[in-house]
Amino acid sequence: MDKSWSNQGKDANGDAKDQQLEQFRVNNDGKKMTTNQGIKISNDEDSLKAGVRGPTLMEDFHFREKITHFDHERIPERVVHARGYAAHGEFELYESMQEYTKAGFLQKVGAKTPVFLRFSNVVGSLGSVDTARDVRGFAVKFYTEEGNYDLVGNNIPVFFIQDAIKFPDLIHAVKPEPHNEMPQAASAHDTFWDFVANNQETAHMIMWLMSDRAIPKNYRMIEGFGVHTFRFINEKGKSRFVKFHWKPILGVHSLVWDEAQIIAGKDADFQRRDLWESIENGDFPQYELGIQMIEQEEEFKFDFDILDATKIWPEEIVPVKIIGKMTLNRNVDNVFAETEQVAFHPGNVVPGIDFTNDPLLQGRLFSYLDTQLIRLGGPNFAEIPINRPICPIHNNQRNGFSRQTINVGKVSYHKNSLANNTPSSSSASEGGFVHYEEKVEGRVTRARSKSFDDHFSQARLFWNSMSPPEKQHIINAFSFELGKVKSQSVRQQTVNMFGHVDKEMATIIAINVGVNKPIGEQSNVTASSPALSQENTIKLPQTLKVGVLIGDGFDATEVSNVLKTLTKYGVRYSLIAERLGAIKSKEGVQLMATETYLTTDSVLFDSLYVVGVRADNQAKFNQDILIFINQAFRHYKPIGVATTGLPFFSASNAKLGPGVVVATGNADFGKKFVDAIAQQRFWDRNIY
To answer: Which end of the chain is more exposed for a tag (fewer CB within 10 A), N or C?
Structure first.
């Protein structure tokens, strides 16, 4: 595919990063094969032998190099966030933040900064499925003129724990149980819920994990959050507390749990495939960057501690200010070289952005750097092309595994006279990073602030903010997860714990998992935050995918008009038939089927358009269409029914009602169908 468009509209920074990567790109098309030492190869099919049936000779340098390289191709996968996918893009600033921060890339309106975004699942291994119930990583690397800035976040704004010292315990508990290495990429097992019940700071995060947020529809429709509280520092040295938000232009949308499980079997790469294909098709994912700010003197005015990573700043209390937009416009050239080797670190900040005393953040500032050293083979991981800053690098660091820089001169220390004391440090006015001079006092202690003690108020706030369908989904998720827990004691402890969030919710869960009703008092929080409910998200038809169920003998005029309407509103569609290739209308017009009922599935589409009509094997054709219709209807998806499709719809288990648009007698069918597609789910549908 011609990717010349990927450079359009870029500023000098974007071009600089592309040019920097270009020197590392290798295209083998039309080239002669060589060894890694540049020696041309005459035969890559046979090893060197003593006779055609004799032993392989040790002197075969090509065989030894090729096998040795293959034996060492794998690097340790990430302990968490192992399964990931990524893309390149750019960030464009809407509004100058000069009043609040001296960060260079946030100064000039319209300035564009190249970025690299890696999405990921937290729990599963590299070979796990995309659609597991899990937290999604949302890590952005900004290649700024002042150095790399990494905003390493998730699609959920809070975390399980308050102090990083508990992170190994959390991951040990949620990973597959050590005695049998099961289950993979799932939290529905004893050790995880035992951890939850005995570490009640997890309450708020668990409510998010049991919600629809943990099974996103795709990467293009998730929010991103920096999770922690950071600081903005302006030129005058004034500090403000800040949280970061990424708001998807297409809104926040999720899968249905049954749908997510089916997709895991039908297409384990469902979300990464969606990202790849969307960018290849020019449907560039976009996210607006928002910030919440709190003045330094307002640190203690709220009924939550702003440094507590298990708490949000409700948007109704601290509004989100939208300041820019990120567009993903280029897929990676090589997944290993870029997606797997990219090294993020929340300690990679630029002047004007600084840390706070959030104890979870403080631990991450050590852990991420330590992790890269072992994953990427030593201290020179910043020299890997995807990690290289676009600005010059000058320091006295030397040697180590896989060093690429060839340092000239004999001076590698500071201070010195032989090189006129260079490289020298920069003052703040010259752009040197200066940490915020926060006054710190206190006794050395292993303790936690009492302001971190409230674990249930915001969990209750989240519950209060959910729509009735979302609440039912949370109850279903708890019932499924705890239903997989073998220990009755753990099930009872967990039900008792979430009785503090909502007594009625916990009572229903208790009945479903066979334990006693919860004991203890429910939180008395009555407030809600509408921003937390996906019911209030943006709903657009653009980029949504329709499966067109079609056979020979269709009405060419009717179908053509509908497909044109879908295209007009940016809806993607695939023609699904009994076989690939041409399908003929009753008028002799041909359309090309790109999928069959064997190669695709209803769960892989956002909506169906039922056209039907004739096939070589009519009985099987009829049955296949009914399976698609029944599944889409059960997953609350919109269904459009052509004039010829009505007999097929009538034979299914689906019923006329919300989200079902019928063409018969409907002059404006195409537009009404598009409106239904935009709605995406019809929760008031009676599916039983």
So the answer is: C
340: left (phi over 0), alpha (psi -120 to 50) or beta: alpha
For residues 638 and 684, the answer to whether their CB atoms sit within 8 Å is no
Neighbours of 298 (CB within 10 A): 13
Q: If pLDDT is split at 50, 70 and 90, which confidence band does 9 have?
A: very low
- Condensed to tens digits (0 to 9), the pLDDT of residues 631-674 reads 999 999 999 999 999 999 999 999 999 999 999 988 899 999 99
Cite the active site residues.
81, 154
Secondary structure (3-state) at 457: helix
Diameter over CA atoms, the chain: 89
Q: How far apart are CA 324 and CA 89, in angstroms?
A: 13
- As its CATH architecture, domain 539-679 has 3-Layer(aba) Sandwich (3.40)
Q: How far is 346 from 366, CA to CA, in rounded Å?
A: 9
Give the single-character DSSP code of 76.
Answer: P
Q: In CATH, what class is 83-165+216-387?
A: mainly beta
Tokens of 172: 């040990």
Q: The tokens 């302001």 sit on which residue?
A: 451
Is the domain spanning 467-535 CATH 2.70.40.10? The answer is no
Cα dihedral angle (50, 51, 52, 56), rounded to 10 degrees? -10
pLDDT in tens, 420-444: 999 999 999 999 999 999 988 889 8
The mean pLDDT value of the chain amounts to 95
Predicted model pTM: 0.94
Question: With contact defined as beta carbons under 8 Å apart, do 355 and 230 qualify?
Answer: yes
Confidence (pLDDT) at 688: 74
The alpha carbon of residue 156 and the mean position of all alpha carbons in its chain are separated, in whole angstroms, by 10
Instruction: Say which DSSP state 31 is in.
Output: P
Tokens of 129: 């499925």
Spatial distance between the Cα atoms of 280 and 217, rounded to a whole number of angstroms: 19
Confidence category of residue 11, pLDDT binned at 50, 70, 90: low
Within 254-355, residue ranges assigned H as helices are: 257-266, 270-280
Q: In angstroms, rounded to a whole number, what is the distance separating the alpha carbons of residues 398 and 389?
A: 18
DSSP state of 614: B
- Delimit the domains of the chain by residue range: 83-165+216-387, 467-535, 539-679
